[in-house]
Amino acid sequence: MEDATVLVVLLLCLVQSFTVGSNTLWFDPYAGITQFQVTMTVPSLSRGFGAHGVWPGIQNSDDTFVFQSVVSDSRVPGTWQFFVEYCCNPDYQASPVRVYPGDMITSTFSLGSNTQWTDGWSLSPGPAGQAAGQIAQSGSSGNSFGRDTTPSLNASHTEHDLAKRGTIDKAVLSIELANGAAADFGQVQWTTLSITASTTSSWCSGAYTASSGFKYVVSGGASHTSGSSTTCVYNSVTFG
């Protein structure tokens, strides 16, 4: 995978003028993914310039789109906003939810029997969120990535069918920076990461690759095969 080629697709999604970055980790089982779940702890806010985004998502084999759960300060500088997004051609975003450093967001991307992908998410407030009156909440957005029709988009449900562009075969964790931004908000912590793929191979070891020079630590990597699927579970991933 060529970092520059793939990241041109991934970046440009949250705000205009994104530049190619080097802050992405891909998990590739070399088979179609049917479920990807991960919990992200919302990091500290940046005090610098530009726009910052942190997200997990799924990506197709042609590297032409991502379906993602985004935490970004691009909409309201100085605050984190959470929203589900399909990126990028065309680009659709659900209505945002204000989130705070220390909040925990669990995203579950799952493929249904009707070929519909669902991003089901739940938000658990941390101390800062609780102090600000944040409440636990959840929602879901769906996308079939099928035929081209008119989208229906709101805060809790997204349906938009697009031309088929390959199997969903990568789980992605990423930091996006734009407009002169720097990754100055400290570490990003991901926990209870699990990926289920349509293969009987024990694929956990060596299944991930990162942008050149990107600093990360992956803990765990146990696999379990049931029928024609294998699930790989990682205890945690730390960026920075």
TrEMBL record:
Look up keyword Signal and say if it applies: yes
Comp. bias intervals (Polar residues): 143-156
Task: List keywords of the entry alphabetically.
Answer: Signal
Lineage, top-rank taxon, reads Eukaryota
User: What is the residue range of the signal peptide feature?
Assistant: 1-21
Stretch list, region Disordered = 126-160
Compositionally biased intervals (Low complexity): 126-142
| Protein name as it appears in the record | Uncharacterized protein
**Organism, per UniProt?**
Phialocephala subalpina
